[in-house]
Amino acid sequence: MKNPFKRLGRNYPYDKVHEYTTGSKPILSTNRLKILAGIITFVIIIVFMFESVVVVEAGHRGVVLYVGAVEHRVLGEGIHFIIPFAEQVIQMEVRTLKFEANATAASNDLQEVQTTIALNYHLSPDQTNLIYQQLGADYADRIIAPTIQESVKASVAKFNAEELITRRAEAKAVIAQSIANTLSARNIVVETVFITDFKFSQAFASQVEAKVVAFQKYLTEQNNLLAIKVIANQTVVQAQAAARANVAKAAGESQAIQIITSQLRQSPQYLQWLSINRWNGQMPYALGSGGAVPFFQLPARAPQTQNQTQTQTQNQTQLR
User: Fold this and answer.
1) Distance CA 153, CA 142 (A)
2) Is residue 293 part of a domain?
3) Strands, DSSP E only, in 107-184?
4) Distance (Å, rounded) from C-alpha 96 to C-alpha 258?
5) Sign of the four-CA dihedral 177, 180, 184, 186
6) Which residue of 90, 118, 179, 297 pairs with 194 in a disulfide if CB–CB is 3.0 to 4.6 A?
7) How far apart are CA 120 and CA 25, in angstroms?
8) Is residue 312 part of a domain?
9) In this structure, are 58 and 109 located in the same domain?
10) Is residue 122 a contact partner of residue 94, using CB atoms and an 8 Å limit?
11) What is the DSSP string of 248-303?
12) Residue 158 belongs to what domain range?
């Protein structure tokens, strides 16, 4: 019977162990490469996923660039998928924004005018790709600032310096309309235009102040003149009323005299009756050439009555 270990060699078990020990290095190197490749693949996938997803913030619009070229689509708010590394999204704010600028112009009468314009505006949401393509992200400095300067110069030249004060609302409307028309052609919507103030030279301000003072004095004199006229009219009216009252009084007295005369003619005892009604209890006298005589005569007693009275008096004396 053959020895089964003879074919494999004299040191069979030990030779096999040595073979496994010397062949393990290639196996470990292959596993490390696979793990590294998996990690790299995972990272690449994460990067691709990250680059393929974009979030457009609230109040913004996304302008899509394909290898640097502006596409015709505009991304709204929210999550969107794009081609990684080929497409890029530029976010443009479409909320109400404020732009303020100082402007200098000359009025129609060649007076230098300085003002400050505050502008509220927003971008047209559907046209943000055109705005970025034509003006870029710094569109405010490219188009809004020059538009304000030009509009103020063109509009202020239509008014005199004094009219800019007295017709401020109209001047503001002209400036605002000019700015809105220019910016609307660039897909920029103007909401409100504020003119903080118009500033003039010191000499012109002094002239305006002197004119205002003179006008106020004129108005004061006019008011004083009107007051004098009112007082004069009141005096005339009072005099006329007094004259009419005197005429009415005279007419009344004349009518009363006529009535009294008519009554005296009809009743001669009227004066005596009137004197008795107005008597205060004292004997009235009137001085005349014949001495003091009564103003009116008391009625005398009849002679028979007097005799009866004397007889009664004598009888009473005898009885005593």
Assistant:
1) 18
2) no
3) 112-123
4) 96
5) positive
6) 118
7) 73
8) no
9) no
10) yes
11) HHHHHHHHHHHHHHHHHHH-TTHHHHHHHHT--SSPPEEEETTEEEESSPPPPPPH
12) 94-200
SS3 84: coil
Per-residue pLDDT of 47-91, as tens digits, reads: 888 888 999 999 999 999 999 899 999 999 999 999 888 899 999
Strands (E), the chain: 53-56, 60-66, 69-75, 78-81, 87-93, 97-106, 112-123, 188-199, 285-288, 291-294
103 & 162 share domain: yes
Q: Are residues 261 and 235 in the same domain?
A: yes
Q: Is residue 305 part of a domain?
A: no
How many whole angstroms from its chain centre is CA 267?
Answer: 85
Count of structural domains within the chain: 4
Whether residue 99 is found in the same domain as residue 186: yes
Question: Are residues 194 and 126 located together in one domain of the fold?
Answer: yes
pLDDT digits (tens, 9 = 90+) for 249-304: 888 777 777 777 776 666 666 666 667 767 676 665 555 555 554 555 555 555 55
Helix-then-strand count for the chain, H and E: 10, 10
Residues 110 and 168 placed together within one structural domain of the fold? yes
Residue 134's Cα: distance from chain center in Å?
A: 39
Task: Name the token pair of 276.
Answer: 């008795």
192 lies in the same domain as 122: yes
Q: What are phi and psi of 111, to 5 degrees?
A: -95, 135
Phi/psi for 12 (5° steps) reads -55, -55
Q: Is 205 part of any domain?
A: no
pLDDT tens sequence across 110-157: 888 899 999 999 999 999 999 999 999 999 999 999 999 999 999 999
